[in-house]
Amino acid sequence: MENFELLMGGLESALTPMNLLYAAIGVLLGTFVGVLPGIGPAMAIALLLPVTYRLEPTSAFIMFAGLYYGGMYGGSTTSILLNTPGESASVMTALEGNKMARAGRGAQALATAAVGSFIAGTIGTLLVAFFSPALADVAVDLGAPSYFALMVLALVMTTTVLGTSALRGFAALFLGLTIGLVGLDLNTGQPRLTFGVTQLVDRLDIVVVAVGIFALGEALWVAAHLRRRPAHVTPVGRPWMGRDDWGRSWKPWLRGTAFGFPFGALPAGGAELPTFLSYLTERKLSKRGDFGRGAIEGVAGPEAANNASAAGMFVPMLALGLPVTATASVMLSALQGYGITPGPQLMTDHADLVWTLLASLLIGNTLLLVLNLPLAPLWARLLRIPRPQLYAGILFFACLGAYATNLDPFDIALLLAFGLLGLMMRRFGLPVLPLILGVILGPLMESKLREALTISGGDYVVLLSEPLAVVIYVLIALFILGRPFIVRVRARAERSATVEDEKELVD
Amino acid sequence: MSTTPAGGWVVVAWAPDEFGAVALDWALDDAERRDRGVVVVNASRGDALVDDRFAFEEQLAELERRLTGSERPHEIRQSIEPDVAGAVLETAEELDARLIVVGLRRRTPVGKLLMGSVAQRILLGAACPVLSVKPGSTPD
């Protein structure tokens, strides 16, 4: 029960008025960006990074945690009211959620999403508090070869599992790894890929890359598709649930949590798969046969799964320093911005930060429930903001953030270059996550590889010298061999649960 | 498009709300008196995710029922373009409309500065007479 005491200690230091304020700001901002499709928590955190450098790391992370959970929850509102999922994790919620809203049960759908998110988030956070220290204890003894293998696993899994095309995934990954190479080689002092530009020697600022790809890329993409047929929002009042709804929801909540947490914690990352599995399970288990016509189980399960996986993501991030989602990558780069090295030592060296962060996740989760139940009608109004005004604001913050880090106009030019790259990636359907992971994990992987090779004197066999590394490589091999099968199963299941395509450009 | 009715066309700037409803009332009244056909224009700039003034399927179906019930020649035009007032004016010009009917929204000066006014743009830009009506009035 030592962990529990530490968590209580964290709760104590997180519960200052200032930190509560940051948590509230984070939750509100997070819901804001979650509600609007195309803008996710990763972009919001990237935009906020420069603003938070002045804050204590603890306060900044409390805000980010609120943002992350808020963003996860906000996506469900759009899914339910508009049938336009704000992000991939909410796609499954839209299936039953929007049908419920059309049948006049939108208030219950929103309520089950909110309460389910709260329960899954709370259980998930407690599981993180329980598992991460144990994992970190084990991880401290891991050598460079195992770390290298883990990172290869994370990259291969995110590149091939998510998204439809492995080729596109790898294209994005190698773009990211290349971007990660830019700058001074720390071992030999040689400049790499700098093209004689002095500002590039210093390595690329991850803020500029992330903001360029996420914010500028999305803004340019939206500008190219400005006019779309407006969607119809189903009017709802305050979310509430009847006794029957509670009875039908609680089991899916728990099952969704059970699906979401392990998937979030695995390097395979992402909430796409667990929400999907949760939806399929609920549909199989349903005895009422109202699936496809607005079954509350179909909202409760996936929403819980999506928040539980959001919590699960913190396990590899805190215990190993391995990000598995775009949001985790940006959070990790924020840690680095504070001069804190992520990794298994984080749990011991910065224990106060970690426990306060975990405690603030619990607080953020509670605030989310308190704020969102009464505010739901207000969030729906956000959807009326015209895109030109909205993206003008985002562009302003993007440029401000890029400039503020170094006060160098060169960064604005870089931002634009990455914005154009982001636009091209969206145009050609390249996933963004492998690129960001590549930028973050590339240099880490390189240093582990070099470390291992230095010890062995350049012999590559050292990469197989640890049992864990061998197991991981076998897993990767099995996974790559089994991929065609997985893809087929998923494609069949997805066909049986088709999502209405977003209505395309009209004129 | 059916052949031009004897009295020409009336163009209505319509939205699925009380302002559109009252504009439609007056347009149908005029069409009956002067043997005119009614063209309903519903447009959106399409730059926000949600636009309440852009009718969705059920609302269009109801509009269609109302128009069919009036037994006047009619047409519904729905479009997404940067300039909503321009869509109305273009339609009026194309059909050589005899009358445009708009529902007038109340706007404070600041509100008008921020939101613009479709009705004002139609009033200033139209070549034919414009009838502007407010909710609460009924054609006698």
TrEMBL record, chain A:
Residue intervals of the DUF112 domain: 20-437
Keyword Ribosomal protein: no
Keyword terms, alphabetized: Membrane, Transmembrane, Transmembrane helix
Sequence intervals crossing the membrane: 20-49, 109-132, 144-162, 169-186, 206-224, 314-335, 355-378, 390-406, 412-440, 460-481
The organism's place on the tree of life at top rank: Bacteria
Record-given protein name: Tripartite tricarboxylate transporter TctA
Taxonomic lineage from the root: Bacteria, Bacillati, Actinomycetota, Actinomycetes, Propionibacteriales
Automatic annotation (TrEMBL), chain B:
Top-level taxon of origin: Bacteria
Residue span, UspA domain: 11-134
InterPro entries, per database record: Rossmann-like_a/b/a_fold (IPR014729), Universal_stress_UspA (IPR006015), UspA (IPR006016)
Protein family: Belongs to the universal stress protein A family.
Record's protein name: Universal stress protein
Taxonomic source organism: Nocardioides luteus
